[in-house]
Amino acid sequence: MEDDGRIVVDILLADHPFEGFLDPVRRRAAEFGAAHPRYEIRISTYRYWTGTGREDFIRILDQGRVPALVDVFFTETQHARDALAATGGPLFTPVQRAVGGRRQILGEPVVIDDLVDSARRYYSYDGELVSMPFSVSTGLLYANMTMLRAAGITDLPQDWESLEAACRAVVQTDGGPPHAITWAVDGWFFQGAVCQQGGLLTDHANGRSGRARTVNLASEESLAWTTWWQRLHKDGLYLHTGQAQDWAGTLDAFTEGRVAFLCNSSVMAQPVVSAGAQAGIEVATGGLPRNGAVPYSGDILGGDSLFLAAGLPPDVQDGALAFLQYLLNPRNAAAWHKSSGFIPVTHGSHRLLEAEGWFTEKPHHLQAPKQLDASDGTPAATGALAGQLAIMHTDLVQAMRDVLERDADPARRFAQATATAQKRLDDYNRQTAQRHAGHPREPRASRTTA
Fold first, then answer.
1. pTM here?
2. Backbone Cα Rg of the chain
3. CA-to-CA separations, 292 to 139, 141, 334, in angstroms, rounded
4. Domain containing 243: what range?
5. Per the domain annotation, does 212 fall within a domain?
6. Residue 49 pLDDT level (bands cut at 50, 70, 90)
7. Percentage of residues of the chain with pLDDT beyond 90
8. Is 444 a residue whose pLDDT tops 60?
9. How many domains, in total, are found in the chain?
10. 377: left (phi over 0), alpha (psi -120 to 50) or beta
11. Which of these, 121, 434, 138, lies nearest to 286 by C-alpha position?
């Protein structure tokens, strides 16, 4: 509590590398303080994606002392759930449990039951919402319709076979680009491809019915994706920039007209469409193409969620919970979508945007929520929950670079990647068990980490 008597709610947010990215959240914090004069929302930030950002963030969790709310990237969800406070108990408490069935907190209507299904599923365990989805995205296909029409293509491809055929038609067109498609070599696309095909990255229903203890990066679904990708590259259709996780380089290739297709995050919908317009390119957006030989399960989400620290004084906890509800009420969640590009994360915000004509004016923003809504809700479609998931993504990237750059055999190379990832997971689970030894948890919480 400050000297002036205000109750301080400290928040640690992930700052993305976009100018003014968190300015809207800072405005919401000021508005909340004005509406609730007893409270001050105090924001600090960290950069997860640069330099030692991830290591620094994990160090914060491992110290066992955190602000009231902590923004956690989706690949670190298991680590946050496993984190222990300095007292030995859980570092975080589930948001739904803290809300306790209330309809309002400090006068702010509770919105946790209005979250879109895909986000609520990802951040829930045993049917309980663990953390509050904040920034949610998925992958999209961006297409240069000028190039496609020149190749006689009027509709966006929806599966791998039709996309490959479209790529061949584009490069064979007079004046066509040297390559047809590009995307970053990033683990998110691997997990998404496995997810689409109904495959599992780990045991125990992707870590959803119990702790993930075995991992398989060389599954049938993974190899179907990697061998198709390898063929596109060998045939000159896929542009490999030579860099891992080259989101910027692949985006430049598309906006500069060096490829006709780009796979990228839905967060980039407005920047891609705007950059295309400046370059005289008509950009269309569609869902990520799927393996047409198997039933479609769903597409993986990305982004981050807000975790609530355990053991807070009741007035601080209520201030944190109330701010969460305010931050994601329909008006503010819609505004966050407009400023950040992340999907409207509640049904109320989506309806508000529809009523305003937002999606009619900017239809490229509608594809992402439609794609996530199409999920079948299975653990495969929901995505994996596992320790060291971010490093597993790195193992996938390294293996795929060997396939693309050294013509490594996909089955053999991804079996090696599986062995490496399995050792990481074993080490993580063993170290977690050692930390938790002697610190029994309340029954329900123990199930969420067993």
1. 0.94
2. 22
3. 18, 16, 34
4. 139-300+381-425
5. yes
6. confident
7. 90
8. no
9. 2
10. left
11. 138
Q: Are 44 and 10 in contact (CB under 8 A)?
A: yes
Answer for the pair 67, 91: CB distance below 8 angstroms, yes or no.
no
Q: Which amino acid is at 248?
A: A
Q: For residues 66 and 203, state if they share a domain.
A: no
CATH at residue 416:
3.40.190.10
Euclidean distance between CA atoms 345 and 303, whole angstroms: 11
**In degrees rounded to 5, what are phi and psi of residue 151?**
-95, 5
351-408 pLDDT, tens per residue? 999 999 999 999 999 999 999 999 999 999 999 999 999 999 999 999 999 999 999 9
- Give me the amino acid identity at 236: G
- Residue 437 placed within a domain: no
Tokens 């295309």 sit at which residue? Answer: 276
Residues 182 and 275 in one domain: yes
Using the CB atoms, write b or e for 20-50: b if 16+ within 10 Å: ebbebbeebbeebbeebeebbbebeebebee
Structure tokens, 355: 């009523």
Mean pLDDT of the chain: 94
Whether 68 has a pLDDT exceeding 50, the answer reads yes
